[in-house]
Amino acid sequence: PAAALPERVGHYEAQLIRDALRDYGGDVRAAIDALGVPRKTFYDKLKRYGIAASEFRNGGDADTQPISEKR
């Protein structure tokens, strides 16, 4: 069966955060600006989804497509 809506939304949200961090080389401020979320909310979501911004610095996670290529 398909995942419940909240679970699917969480996966999508986490992917958007990863995409923004990758697109901006791990620059948290730029990712926050691009996503248009408050700083505290962004950090809360990093913690919730177990995402470390430092993993995206210096070309990290380069095996997935950037946001611009997904549209």
Instruction: Estimate nothing, just give the exact number of structural domains.
Output: 1
Low-confidence stretches: 62-71
Q: Quickly name the level 1 CATH class.
A: Mainly Alpha
Q: What class would the helix/strand composition place it in?
A: mainly alpha
Distance between the termini: 27 Å
Overall pLDDT: 87
Strand content: under 5%
Radius of gyration: 12 Å
Portion of residues within helices = 55-70%
Principal-axes shape call: globular
Explain what you see.
By secondary structure, the chain is an all-alpha fold. It has one domain (5-60): Orthogonal Bundle (Arc Repressor Mutant, subunit A). 59% of the residues lie in helices and 0% in strands. The protein has 4 helices and no strands. The radius of gyration is 12 Å and the shape is globular. Residues 62-71 have low confidence and may be disordered.
What's the gist of this structure?
With 71 residues, the protein is an all-alpha fold. The chain has one domain: Orthogonal Bundle (Arc Repressor Mutant, subunit A). It has 4 helices and no strands.
Which terms would index this structure?
single chain; 71 residues; mainly alpha; Arc Repressor Mutant, subunit A; 4 helices; 0% strand
Secondary-structure topology with pairs:
Layout: H1 5-23, H2 28-35, H3 39-49, H4 67-70
